[in-house]
Design a protein that fits this description.
alpha+beta, 3-stranded antiparallel sheet, 2 helices
Length: about 180
């Protein structure tokens, strides 16, 4: 008894005794070409996926850097705005009458000043040194150039206002008098 077999591509029936070798070869070639096309397309999709993953990874790193920089900049701006308050405390303590030194009120102000200094220290704020230093336009702002005995040209005579920095970034340059 013969069992009819249907072809994969059309509705023709082939009986086992018929010759279908030529048809099978064509179908194998077609399937091989389709397989190769599918593999090529899969390789292209994989390449696109890998590129997209790399771009996304780079994007995440850039966003993290930008957010970190933004946070640091915002912190620097706030700290810069606090520096005049520190200056005011220092001027107040420098000009305080001798009789007020031991009162609880002035001790309370001193405590507030120390807390403010501690916050600046925790944020990495450092005072720019000026004593026995040569004038550096990256760190100092010259208020006056004047002749002074005992100082060479370009040496800092005195500090008018303290300067501050965080790491290598200058928040505010030191205002200084410079020997000429």
């Amino acid at each position: 008894m013969m069992i009819p077999v249907k072809r994969a591509r059309d509705d023709e029936e082939i009986t086992p005794g018929e010759s279908g070798a030529g048809v099978q070869g064509d179908e194998l070639a077609t399937l091989g070409a389709e397989l190769e096309a599918a593999r090529t397309q899969a390789a292209e999709y994989l390449d696109q996926l890998q590129r997209t993953a790399a771009q996304f990874s780079n994007y995440k790193k850039r966003i993290d850097r930008e957010q970190s920089e933004f946070t640091r900049l915002a912190s620097s701006n706030l700290l810069t705005r606090l520096l005049p308050v520190v200056d005011d405390f220092e001027r107040a303590f420098d000009t305080m009458p001798p009789g007020l030194g031991g009162t609880t009120w002035t001790e309370g102000l001193a405590l507030i000043y120390r807390k403010l200094q501690q916050i600046l220290l925790q944020e990495g704020v450092e005072i720019i040194e000026t004593e026995a230093q040569a004038f550096d336009p990256q760190l100092h702002q010259a208020v006056t150039y004047e002749e002074a005995d005992g100082f060479g040209e370009g040496e800092i005579i005195a500090e008018v206002q303290k300067g501050y920095r965080i790491g290598e970034r200058v928040l505010r340059p030191s205002m200084v008098r410079v020997a000429s």
